[in-house]
Amino acid sequence: MPVGLTAVAKFLPLTHVLALLRYGAVDHAGAGLHDIWGMTSSMAMAFLSLGVIVLFAAVSTAASFRVFTRTAVR
Question: What is the pTM of this model?
Answer without folding.
Answer: 0.83
